[in-house]
Structures are given as structure tokens and as C-alpha cells.
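re: ur question from the group chat, yeah i did fold both. here u go
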Amino acid sequence: MQHHTKTDKQSETGSTIHDHPWLAHLIDEKEYLPPSYYAKLLKPYRAGGRNDLEIFGEFLSSLAPIPARALELGCGSGRATSVALRLLPTVELTAVDLSSSMLSAMPLDGRLRTLCSDICAYLLSAKCEAPYELIFSLWAFSHSVHMWLGRARTDPTVFDTAARAVRTMLTDRISPGGRFFIMHFDSLSEEQRVAMPQWAKVDAIFSDVESQSPSFRLIASIIEDLNRRGRVEAGVTHFQGEAIEYDGIEQALETYFNFHLEGRLNRAPAAELEKAVSEVTSALERHQDRSGRIVVVPSWFVFSGTRVE
């Protein structure tokens, strides 16, 4: 994790850092956010009176028999990991994340093994100790897929890496009869529409802001193909979330720039950064009530199913 002093950053962005000191967080692609700061920014995602972990827990509780070996992709500091260890008391769980600082905050459990790796790279690696009877990922899988899709624009040799990783996960890394669960953001939701025009500036793969994200389209197309060929039985469920509230514009801006946008614009030249802050502010103001609170509605998808053969 890199941190610049206020003086260093002011020389690049003028008054912007003075007005928004949280822009001093310069987030490394691998390390992302410190676990404590991530927990501060994270808002509860709820649908139908249940949060994301409870929805995941319901899926785990439906599994019979309990899987002996499971793989978590993009475990972060262990939010979903803890749920899996609690509800699957005999499981041996491997948890993978790109951030060493996140892994350092993981729960201690003799049934848990952690690995520092990119998700797609691990799925395609000989180090992947497949097959697993359960593979799951809450929110993180799209990050790795998008990194590889973005790299493909400048390095044709990695063009099919993300697609091969998704297909390999569903056909080779899960044992026959094994299950999978992937929670993925809805880029057309009210919440994400604030951020997606800025992602289009970060990487051209996001230029079509009126369509679902590239990772969603890739995963959905591969699952559709595998369903048609009888290799998996799977579907996707859409969850309309309950409103998320921020105390005001500044709190919402901090979350959008350092969480939803992953700090990717914090390094931008002064004029670009000031324009981005202005555009996100204008987008958020459309969701501001009379008390000054920002109220946005999220939604997301869950891909889940079974490997048939």
C-alpha cells in the first residue's frame, strides 16, 4: 500500500486533495485497501431483509452432504470465509486473495489454508489443488476477470485468460456433483450507474455503460454454453437491494472513489481528477434527499449451480 503525504499530492492535484483528503489513499492493484479501512467503507448489502452473508449462508445450509474441500476466490479479510467455516463444520477450505494485507486479517482456523494469488491465475495454475466440491466468491471474482480483460488490450497473449479461467473453474476445478456460488455486482443498478462512467475512463473495456460489465457477460455466456452442452446445471438470480444511505456527499464520494472505483482515479492529473469529482458529485446529487443524505439502491446477481459431469 502506498501513501503520499498531503504536500506531495497537492502538487499534482491542486486544491482537490485539500477539499477531499481521503484522495491521499493511493491504492495498489494488488493490495487494494487496508482491511480496517475497507470495513469502514463497506455498506451493508441487503435484499428481502437479508444481507449478502445471510443469502450466502442459506445456500451453504442447503448443501448435503457437507463438502469435504472448498475453494474461496477473493476472500478479502474473511467475511464469507467465517460464514463457511461456521456452517460447514467439517470442510477443508482454501482461500485465495491477491492482497497479503487482507490475508493477514483472516480468521485463524486449522481447517483454513490461505494463498496470495490472482484468482484467474490460480485457477489456471498447476498449484490449484482441484477438484473442489464447492467453489464460491462474493463480489471479488469480477475484479480478476476485468484485470485480465483489460490487459488483453495491450497484450494479445492474455486475450483468452479470463475466459479459460472461468471455463476451467466450472469444468475442471469442481468435482462432478460439486457446487458453485458467485455473487456479482449489477453494473446497471442505481448504485453502480454513478460509478460506471468513471470506470469507462479507467479502461476502455467499460465503455459500454448501458450494458452489463464485461465480466458479467463473460461468465453468463460461458454458463449458458455449459448448460446447453449438459456440463453444468446452473442459473442466475437477480437481487434487488434495499437502499444504502450516506450521511452526505463527502461520505459518499469517499466510498465511491476508494471502494467502488478502487482508487483508480486518485492518481489522475489535476484537471482529470477535479472533473471526475465534479461528475460523481453531480451523479450523487440526483440521489440526495432534503436532509442532505445520499440514498442509492444497489442490486446484484448470484450465479449458482452444479457441475454435472
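okk and heres the other one u asked abt
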Amino acid sequence: MSSTSEAPSVRSGNAPILPENGISGFSLGVVIAVLAFLAGIALTAFFAVDSAVRGWSGELTGSITVQVRGMSAAEIDSSTASALAVLQETVGLSNVAVMPRGEAEALLEPWLGSGNLPADLPMPALVTADVTPELRAALDPLRARLAEDVPGASLNDHGAWTDQLVEAARRMRGLAFLAFCLITAAAASVIVFAARSGLAAHRNIIEVLHLVGATDSFIAGQIGRRYLLLGFAGGATGAFLAWVVTKVLAVVTTDAGGFLPAFSIDTSTALWMLVIPLLLGTLSTVSARIAVMRTLKTDKFV
């Protein structure tokens, strides 16, 4: 009767060195997918805010509004006619038009409610016009002429509001990008922890590989390739779910209306979602390889 001693077998072919179960298996893929989803939301918010504010600020900086006030409806009508004459004679202005009273009342409905304004209320008239960038940079002469010819008129070029909007947008955009960077850093930390934990839990497999002549670089490369697949698969899943959620949100808010522009996702923003699985895949394999190499050098493996 002969006895045989069986040593732990090394996996061959394309099978991973570390077992699929545990922290370096399916559960890690789920964590990466969740982080990729959050990264996709942050990245989409970054581009959505930038696109919406550029569109809104472009409309504001490309137009001016003249408000005409008076003590009576007749006085307002007379002053409005004078303001129209001045604006139509000004080079650099186009599409000069008086806003209908119904549209002006609609602007006040959020504060006063619908149908609460008396019909004989001397509501100021609003005259809108498109302005060229050259004229917008030098509106003082037009403002002075309106003040002289139409005492009840005041010109608003939306400059102060636009500056405040751009500053707020920059802060929101910065926060969204910071969130994206923090989520990416969290993904790297998770990968490093999983790689080190996987080595500690399957120390016997690493020792057998060393016994049969495997180098640290070979082991790190094998494990790094495995985390590349995990990072890419989890990143693709999370990015796809983020795209679905943001696309649904864009459809829901398309006809919502309101003061701010509707939330929208264009093609270029959607293409940026492809960066997430590529980034997480690369980050996973690099982080895992560095963690494995450091662990193999510092710990005493046979």
C-alpha cells in the first residue's frame, strides 16, 4: 500500500490565481459597480451644469431688456413707443419687441398667483432686443440716451446676474469634479485592500507559486490582469446604470419648464461615460499590481 502526499495544485490556463469567491471576487465587482455609478452621476453633473449654464448665460448675454414704468397705462404706452423708437434706431440691436402683458403677468405668477392682478394695474412694459457683443461691451451711451428721452425707462443687460450665475456654476462644477476624483480614489483604495486581503487569505497558493519558480513580477501580473477584468466589468455596469438614470431624468425634466434650463444629456456627455470603465480598469490593475509587489517584498513568502 503506497501513500502519496498531495501538494496544493496551481491553477493552469486562464483560470485566476486567487479563487473567485471572497473579497476579491463577485462582491468586489459589485463595490466597483456602485462606485462607477456614483462616478458616472458626478461626471454627468459636471457636464450637465456646464452645458446648461453656457446655454442660459448665452441667451442672457445676447439680449437686453428695457423696463418702462409710468403712473398710468397711457403714460406707459407713450413711453414704450419712445423707447421702441430709440432701440430701433440703435445699430447693433435686432428683434426689438414689446413683451405681451400676458407673458409679463406669467412672470409674476410664482409670487402673486394666477389671475390676481387687476386689469387696470399700470404694469411696467418690457421691451426685449438682441444685442451684438460689440454693443453689449459699450451700452453706456444707449443707457444715457434712454434716460434722457424716456425718463421712465431702465436698461438691464443681465451682466450682474450672469456673473453670479457663472460663479455659482463654477463652484458646482468644481464640486462635481471633486466628487468624481474622490470616488475614483475610493475605488483605488478598495482595490488595494482587496488585493492585500486576497494575498493574505490565499498565502498557500502564493507560496506554491514561489516553489515552482514563479517570480513576484509574474504573480503581480497575473493578479493585475484579473483586477483589470473586475474593474472594467464593474465600471461598465455602473457607468451604464448611471447613463440610464441620467437619461430618464433628462426625459422627465425636458418639458418641466421653469426658471432654470432643463437638465439634458448630449452625445458628447454620454461618450464621456466610456471613460469610467477604462479608467477603473486601468486603475484596478495598476493599484493591484503595486499592492501585490509591495506585499510580496515586505512579507516573508517562501
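fwiw on the second one: The chain is about 65% helix and 10% strand. The beta strands are 63-68, 93-98, 125-131, 153-156. idk if thats what u expected
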